[in-house]
Amino acid sequence: MKVVKSLLLGTAAGLIAVGGAQAADLPVKAKAVEYVKICSLYGAGFYYIPGTDTCIKLGGYLRAEVALNAGGNYSAQYNGVFAANNRLNNYYSLRAREDLNIDTRSATEYGVVRTYFDAVFTWTTGNYVGTGSGTGATQYSSTLGLNAAGTGLVGSGGGSVNGTDGAISGGSLGVYYAFIQFAGFTLGKAVSQFDAPWINYPGNNFDQLVGGSGTTNGVPQATYTADFGQGVSGTISVQDQTQIFQTNLWNVAGMSTTGVLGGAYGSSDFGGTRAPDIVGNIRVDQAWGLFQASVAAHDNHVGYYGATETTGHPEDKWGWAVQLALSIKNIPTGAGDVINVQGVYTEGASRYNFQELTATSYSMFGSSNAAYQSIGFAGVSDAVFAPGGSLELTKTYGFRGAYTHNWNPYWNTGLYGAWAAVNYSGTAKGLICGSAAFATLTGTCNPDFNIGQVGVITRWTPVKNLTFSADFTYSHLDQKYSGTITTPALTSVGKPAATYELKDQDTYSMLLRAQRNW
C-alpha cells in the first residue's frame, strides 16, 4: 500500500507540473484598456482624447420654437412685410435648430491652451418678400426662388447662408465662435469684449433688445486679457467692424420718399475698412455679482460723394461708445434670483447700442382717422453727410435690464425691458428735412426717435436640461414726426400711393420654445 500511495502521489505531482508548464505557455488575458478617461482639471464633462494630454468636451442643444406675430425668427414687426399690417405678413414662423460646440484644453508651461468652436444648423419658415415688380394676386409667391412676378420665399433674417433655409429639406449652417486662447490672448471669432456677460439676454429670449452691444454670433478679434487677481481683470482688443458694428453712413443725395418711409435717409455709402474697432474693458467678478465698464472707438470711412472717385469724399471721423454693466446675485427674493442691468452712450458708433440683431430701420403701419393709414418710420445711422460736406455723427443712448425670480427648482419668471434714443445733430436734421423726399410733409420734420420694449418670460424645467418657455414682448416706437405725408406706391409691402398720417406705433410678439441642452 505504501508503494501504491507513493506512485499515485508521484503521478499527481507530475501531472500538476506538466499542467503548470502548459499554462505558462498560454497567453495571459490583458488588462482592459481605459479608452475614455475622465479629465477633472476643467470641470464636469471633459475627457482625455486617447493617447494625448488634451481634454475635450462636447456640448450643444436642440431647439424647436414658434414665433407668433413676429418678424421671422424671434424678432419684432419693425419693418418690411412683417410690419405692413396686411395680408402679406406671416402670423407665425417656425424654427428648428441644432447647436454643436467643441471645447479642447491642454495644460502647458504657459498656462492652458484652449480652442473653442460653436456651430448651428437651422431650418426656419420662409418669409414672403416682394421686389415691387409684381401686381395684383401674383405679387407674392409661396415657392422658393423667383416666379414670373419677380418675387419669392426666402429664409428669415440673414439665416439663409447656403440659400436653402426654408426649403423642404434645406436649412442653413452658421459658425458662431471659433477661437484660440493662449497666455491671456484670444484669437478668432468670439464674443466682443465690449459686451456684458449676458450678451443680448439679461433675462429674455427676445433677440432685438436695444440698450447695449451684443455679439451673439461672435466677431473676429485679437484680444489680450490681464488677470489682476481678486476677480479683477482688464482687456484690450481690436475687432472687425464690417459685419456687426456698422449701421448706416447715409448720403442724403440718395434720399427718396419711398426710401424715407422705409426708414432710410439716403444711400448707405461705406468705403473699404481702414481700421478695426478698438475696445477695452475693466471687469470685477465677485460673489455678489459683477461690474464691467467698456469703451470702444469706431472709424467711420465713407466711399465717395458720387459714383466715381473724382466726386471727392468727406474725411474719416472716429466715433466712440461707453457702457456700464452690473449683475447682482444672491438677492433676498430667492435662491438664484438675479438682476442684470446695463447702460450705454454712443456717438458715431450706434451698433454698440442697437446690437447686431436689432433693427436699424423702422417702418410700421397702423390705423388712422385722418388719412388712408398711419405710419411710424425711423432710421439709425453712424453718420449723415451731403455731397461736399463733412460727416455728422449720430448720438444714441439707452439701457436694458432684467430681474429673474426662481419660484422653485422647476419654474422661473423674468421681467425685462429696454429703451434707446437716437438724436441727429442740427446740421444732420437740416440735410434730412431739406430733402425733396419730404416735399409733401404737412407737419413737423424731426428724424429723432425713441424705442421702448418690455416683456415677460416664464420657463419650466421639468427635468434637468429640458426647458419649455413662453416669452411675450411689447414694443413702442416714439417717432418725432407729425402731420401727414403723401407717397408713391410702396409696392414691396403692398401699400398704394396715398396720404399717410405720421404717428407712433406699437407691436407685440410671443415666442414658444422647447430646448434640450446636452
Automatic annotation (TrEMBL):
It is a multi-pass membrane protein. The keyword Transport applies. It comes from the Bacteria. Keywords: Cell outer membrane, Ion transport, Membrane, Porin, Signal, Transmembrane, Transmembrane beta strand, Transport. Residues 1-23 form the signal peptide. GO terms for cellular component: cell outer membrane; pore complex. InterPro entries: Porin_alphabac. Coiled coil: none annotated. It is found in: Cell outer membrane. One of its GO terms (biological process) is monoatomic ion transport. GO terms for molecular function: porin activity. Its main location: membrane. Consists of 16-stranded beta-barrel sheets, with large surface-exposed loops, that form a transmembrane pore at the center of each barrel. The pore is partially ocluded by a peptide loop that folds into the pore lumen. Belongs to the alphaproteobacteria porin family. Forms passive diffusion pores that allow small molecular weight hydrophilic materials across the outer membrane. This is Porin. It comes from Bradyrhizobium guangdongense.
